[in-house]
From TrEMBL:
Protein name per the record: Uncharacterized protein
Domain of life: Archaea
Length: 123
């Protein structure tokens, strides 16, 4: 479908081959084009906080790193964000299911969430 990056994801809902950036833009609205002149209020699927953005999306700026990490430092930041949500009790209970995470967030998002849950359970 697109040729931006070397890493592709086959979307389970639309059955298209998308790069990670396009997958995140299509399904979560991350870096999506502007929806209009007014702000859109949304609720984050990870931390459940209400935030405003200029595009229709389902992930706040703080939690966007969970889905968009590309390097090892970004990966650590994503694990730290999920760990923070777990320790404060804000992580949605559905996100503890690995199959649910893989279906809804892809393998990269699921990897971050499961690694953070594993590290928290060892403490």
């Amino acid at each position: 479908m697109c040729g931006k990056n070397d890493e592709y994801h086959t979307c389970s809902t639309c059955n298209k081959h998308l790069c990670i950036e396009c997958f995140n833009a299509v399904h979560f609205g991350i870096n999506a084009p502007r929806a209009g002149k007014s702000m859109v209020y949304n609720r984050c699927v990870f931390c459940d906080s209400v935030y405003a953005s200029n595009a229709k999306c389902s992930v706040c700026d703080k939690c966007a790193i969970i889905l968009t990490w590309k390097s090892s430092m970004n990966y650590l930041a994503a694990v730290n964000r999920v760990t923070e949500l777990i320790l404060t009790g804000k992580l949605n209970a559905k996100l503890r299911n690995e199959n649910y995470c893989k279906e809804n967030f892809g393998t990269r998002g699921a990897q971050v969430i499961m690694d953070a849950i594993d590290s928290c359970s060892k403490k």
